[in-house]
Amino acid sequence: MSRELGMVAAGIGLRPGTDEKDIRACLDLALARLDLGADSIGCLATAAARAAESGLTRLAMALGVPVVAIPDEALRGEDAGCATRSTRVVALYGVGSVAEAAALAAAGPQASLVLPRISLGRVTCALARGASS
Question: Of 65, 80, 99, 126, which residue is 20 to 30 A from 86 by alpha carbon distance?
């Protein structure tokens, strides 16, 4: 399936101080649902306020991909494409899902979710691909 999907943007929602191993576990679970490997990931995207989290930056370095910091305004611009809604996240960011909105924003114009948000512990993950992927 990975050849059909091309590169995907992984949107990550996380709490401050989340460990790399916890983020990796959620990402691996998301990828497994689509029978994809880590080599399918083009970037890890998250809210700008969380982009410098050490667990996330360490995972990005291990995977050899960039962390894409999505400003709150850009997250809100992707709200219509979100498939799930968290009342807590709506109150904090004005968007139904940070993971979904970040994945969509990072994947570019006309992006679509290929995996709506899943959660594992303190981490959420969603996968999106752009129209040209």
Answer: 65
How many distinct structural domains can be found in the chain? 1
Residues in the chain with pLDDT values less than 70: 1-6, 132-133
Q: Rg of the chain over CA atoms, in angstroms?
A: 13
Single pTM value for the model: 0.92
Which token pair is 50? Answer: 């969380």
CA distance 95 to 28: 24
Q: Cα–Cα distances in Å, from 67 out to 4, 76, 81? A: 24, 19, 21
Match 């960011």 to its residue by tokens. Answer: 93
Give the helix ranges, DSSP H, for 7-121: 20-33, 54-63, 72-77, 87-93, 98-107
Domain, as residue range, for 70: 2-128
CA distance 55 to 68: 14
**Of the candidates 131, 118, 90, 129, the residue with the CA atom closest to the CA atom of residue 33:** 118
